[in-house]
Amino acid sequence: MKSVVIEQPGELVLADRPLPAPAAGEVRVKVQFASICGSDVHIWHGHNPFAKYPRVIGHEFFGLIDAVGEGVDASRVGERVAVDPVVSCGHCYPCSIGRPNVCKELQVIGVHRDGGFSEFAVAPAKNAFRLPASIPDKLASMVEPFTIAANITAFLKPQPNDIALIYGAGPMGLTAIQVLKGVYGVEQVLVVDRLPERLALAQENGADRVFNNSDIPLAAQLEGVQPTLIIDAACHPSILAESAALASPAARIGLLGFSGEPCSITQQALTSKELSLFTSRLNSNRFPQVIEWMEKGLIQPEKLVTHYFPLAEIERAMTLFEKDPRTCCKVILHMG
Ligand code: NAI
Ligand code: MN
Ligand code: ZN
C-alpha cells in the first residue's frame, strides 16, 4: 500500500508499505479521504515533540472498514467510519474520569502511531465511528477538527448572551465560530486575525464582527466592548495577557496552544476579574456529538474546505497548506 511516511524530520516520502493486519480489538480502514492539519506539517519539519520517526502521518481520516481483528464483530466490515485519533489506556486517572485525551499513556494516531495518510490504516475498533449517510465521504474527515471546538466549548459552556472573541481564523478558529453560532446560538461572535482573506472566511463561517490587528491593536478597535468568552485559536504566547486585559469581569478564556515559550501575566490580571482559564487538548469522546451536529446541519464543514488533492500530490498539498494561508484553509487528500 502507498503511505505518506516522514522518515525523519524534513524527509517526506510516498512509500510502499506492507498492508497492516488489524490486531485483536482493532479494525483496518481502507482510507478514502484525509485532511491535512498543521500538526502534520509540524511532524514533517520535526517541530512536534511527541512524534517518533519514521511515521505515517495523518489523524483526520475517513474510510471503510475492510478487515477486523480478533474479538471485533465481523459485521462491521463495510462500515463507513471516521476515526478518533485518541488512543487511551482506559484505566489511568484521566481515563477514569472521561478524559482519555490526556491519558497518561496517550497514543495519538498519526503522531505516536501510524496514521491515515495511507491507503489503509489500523485503529482500535472503538475509535472507528460509524457515519450516517447524510455525511458525505468527501467531508467526513472534517469530524476530527470539529471535535477540537466541541472539546473546548464543553469547558467554556457558551451562552446565547455571551460576547465571544476568537483569536485566529484558521481551521481551529473557524470551527469554533461555527460551533458557537450553530450549536450554542451565541449572538455575538467577534473574530480577530491578521489576514484579510482569513477574516473573510470567518464571516462566511458566521462571525458577526471581524477585526484586523495587523496595524491597529485590537484593544483600540473594540471601543470598550468586553468579551465574556474568549478562545485563543491563534496561540501566540502574548495573547493570554491581552485576553485577560480585554475580558469582561467573570469571563472564561480557553487556550489551545502548545508553545514552549512562557506567557507573561500577573495574578492580578486574572484574579481581579475572577477570570476562568481552560485549556483543551484534542478531544474526549466527542466524535458522536460532532457527528450528530453534522447530521442535524448545525455545522457546515464544507465552508472550511478550499482544496482537494490526490494522495500522490501530498508534498504539493502540504506545501500549499503551509505556505499559502491566504488562499488555503482545509486541504483534503483523496486516496482512491
Ligand atoms: P492556523 O495557523 O491556520 O491559524 C492561525 C490563525 O491565527 C492564522 O489565520 C493567523 O493569521 C492568525 N494569527 C496568528 N497570530 C495572531 C495574532 N497575534 N492575532 C490574531 N491572529 C493571529 O492554525 P490552526 O490550524 O487554525 O490552529 C491554530 C492553533 O491551534 C495552532 O497553534 C495549533 O497548534 C493549535 N491547535 C490546538 C489543538 C488542541 O487540541 N489544543 C488542536 C489543533 C490545533
Ligand atoms: Mn488536526
Ligand atoms: Zn489512560
Automatic annotation (TrEMBL):
Top-rank taxon, per record: Bacteria
Cofactor(s) needed: Zn(2+)
InterPro entries for the chain: ADH-like_C, ADH-like_N, ADH_Zn_CS, GroES-like_sf, NAD(P)-bd_dom_sf, Zn_alcohol_dh
Keyword terms, alphabetized: Metal-binding, Oxidoreductase, Zinc
Entry-linked Gene3D superfamilies: Medium-chain alcohol dehydrogenases, catalytic domain (3.90.180.10), NAD(P)-binding Rossmann-like Domain (3.40.50.720)
Transmembrane segment boundaries: none
Domain Alcohol dehydrogenase-like C-terminal positions: 171-295
PROSITE patterns: ADH_ZINC (PS00059)
Domain Alcohol dehydrogenase-like N-terminal: 24-132
Protein name per Swiss-Prot or TrEMBL: Zn-dependent oxidoreductase
